[in-house]
Predict the structure.
Amino acid sequence: MTENQLPLIEKYRVKDLKDIKGQDLAIQDIKTFFKTYPKKKAIILNGPAGSGKTTVTIAFAREFNLELFELNASDLRNKAKLEEILKPATLQSSLFKKGKLILMDEADGITGSDRGGVTELIGLIEKTQFPIIITANDIWQQKFSLLRQKCQLVNLKELKDSTILEILKDIVIKECRTIKQETLLTIAKKSKGDVRSALNDLQAALIVGEENFVSELHEREKEESIFNVLKIIFQSQTNSKIISAYDSTNMELDEIMLWVEENIPKEYSGKALFKAFESLSKADVFKGRIYRQQYWRFLVYQNFFLSAGISSATRLKSNRFTQYARPSRILKIWMSNQKNAKKKSVLEKYAQETHISKKKAQQYSFILPLILKDKSIQEKLEFDEKEQDYIQEKAGTIIIANNLNKFRQD
Amino acid sequence: MEQDSNIWTEKYRPKKFEEVVGQDDIIRKVTNLTKSLNIPHMLFAGPAGTGKSTLALIIVKELYGVHWKENCLELNASDERGIDIVRQKVKDFARTKALGSVPFKVIFLDEADALTREAQQALRRTMENFTGTCRFILSCNYSSKIIDPIQSRCVVFRFKMLEKKDIEKRIRIIAEKEGLQIDQKTMETLYEDSEGDCRRVINLLQAASSISPTISGELINTLISAAKPGDIKIVLEYALSGDFLKSKEKLLEVMLKESVSGTDIIKSIQKEIWNLQIDNELKVKLTEKTGEIEFRMVEGSDEFIQLQALLASFVMAGRGI
C-alpha cells in the first residue's frame, strides 16, 4: 500500500507527544505515571471513541523508546503469548534492548464471554515488570472496580470542535486539496469530538466530492432527526407538546407521513394499530382537501392527526429499541414503473390499433399476452424485441399460473 | 392496400352497415344519413362492446372510402390529458379542408363521458366554432353524464345491450373462419360472462384459441377467473389472521403487478367480503367500514394509506375486538 492509499487516520496519526492536540492535561498525568513507575504498574486511559487514547500511547512509547506490545481480550487466555511478553527485556533477542510498554486496548471488550478476563488482567498487572496502558470508553462499570484500584486513572476528554477543525485544516493543506471552510466545520461539528470519525468523513468528502458528501450528510442528519421524532411519537406518553414534535425535523409533513406509515406496524399491533391507521387515514383526508381546495389551514389537522392522533393510539408505551425503517413503498412503486414501461408501450400500440382507450386495454391485460404472442400481430403492431420478450414472458406466466397446458390437444 | 389485422376484434369488426348486429333501428337511420352525405353531430350512448366505435368507423369509411384516415380524427377522452389538448388537436385538424366530395371532416371523440362538466362546456364551444368544417361523433356509456347543451346539439342514438342471439351469431362466424370447435354450453358461458360486451367475448375467444382450437367451457372459465384479482382474498385472509405486514405486502404486490388502482381494489374487497368465512354481522360491519374508507379515498390523497387503514380494521375484526 502506498502512502496515498493509507486511510487518513493512519497516514496522519501523530507521532510525537508535542504534536498531540487538545489533551494537555491528560498528557501531564501520564508523564507523572511514567516518572513514578512502578508506584502504580498500570494506567487506565478512559475516554470516548476517537479522543486519542491509542495515539497518546503510541507517542509515549516513542518518547521513552519503549517497544509496544498490544494485547486484546483473548490474548489474556493465551499463556504462551503472555509469557513471551512478560519475559524481561534482557532475556530477549539482543536486537531489541529496549524496554517494553504493554497496551491493553479497549478493556471494555472484556465482557460476557470473557468471564474472568478482568481477573486475569489484574493478575498480569501484579506480575508485570513493564508498564501497562489500558484504554477504555467506560471504566466506571461495576465489574472494573477492582481493576480501577490497581491502576492510575486518566480521563481523556472529547476534543473541541475548534481543535478538530484545526486538525482537519492541517491535513487538507498537507494533502494539497481545497475544501470549503464551511464543509470542514460541518464535519467537525458532526464528529462530536471524535477525531477518527472526522477524518473518515474528510476522506469520504475528498473521495466522493464535497457536494455529494454534504448532501448525503444532510440526508443522514434528516434520518437521525426523524428517528428521534418517531421515538417520541410512538414511545412517549402523549402530552401537550406532542403536536409540535415534528417541528424539530426539517422534513416535509408529507415525507414524514410515509415514515409514520412504514413504522406504525413496527410499534403497534391490534387495536393500537387500528387506531393509529385511523389517525393516519384522517390525516390523509385533510391532506387531500388541502390539495384540492388549496385551503392551507387544514394543515393544522393533518399535523394533529399525524402527531397527537398517532401518539394517543395507545397508552401502553413500550420502551424497547426499535429499528425504524426508511419508507420503502415509493421506491417499490418507482421500480415497478420502470418494469411497467414495456407493458405501457405494448398497451398503447394495442389500444391504438383496436380503437380503444389505454384504460380499457388495461382491463384485458389478463389475456392480452395470449392474443399478442401471435407473430403476425407482433409484426403488424411493430413490437420491438424487448416488447416481444415481455409478451412472451407474460404469456408464459399466464399459461403456467392457470395451468392452461392441460387444455392443449397433443 | 391495408394489411388485415390478426387481432380478431379488428379482423371481425363489421365493415359494412348490414354486418352490424343487434342495432337494426339505429343502423337504418344512420345508413340514410350517411348516404345523404350530410351527417349531423351524433352522440352514441350505450354499454361497452355494443358497436359504437364500429358504427363510427363504418360511417367514415362510407363517406371517404380509402381516404378515411385523412378525414377522420380519432380521439379518446380518457387518454387525452385535459380539454386544452383536445381543443388544440381539433383546431389543427379542422384547419384544412376535407379531401374529396364530402364538405366536412369527422371527429370521433370516444368515451366523452370521461370529460368533466367544465371540459364539456369548452367542448361545446369548440363544436360550435367548427360546425362548418367538422362533424362530431361522440360516444359514451351513459348519456346522463353528457351535459344537456351538447346533447341538444347532437342526434342521440341509444345502443342496446347485445342479446344472446346476436353474440352467438358473431361467435359462429368467427368459429367457422378460424376452425374452432365450440359447443352450445360454452357459447352460453361466454354470453353470461360478457354481459352483452362483444369485445370481451371475442378477446376471450382469441385467447382461448391460442391454447386450443377446441374451446371448452372449462377453458373459458379458467381464463375468466384469471381476470379477477383473486389475490385480494389472500390479502384479506392475512389481515383476518392478524398478520398485518404480510397482508400489506401482498396488497402492494397486487397493486403494482397489474397496476390496479386503489378504487378497483376496494371494489373487489367490497365484493369479496360476502365470500369470506366469517360471521354475517361482521360482514356488515366490515362492509360499512369499507364504504367509509372508499369515501375517504375520494376525499384523501393517498389510496394506499386508506387501504392500509382498512386492513387494520380487518386485523381487529379477526381478533374479535
Remarks:
- The first strand of chain A starts at residue 42 and ends at 46.
- Chain A has 18 helices and five strands.
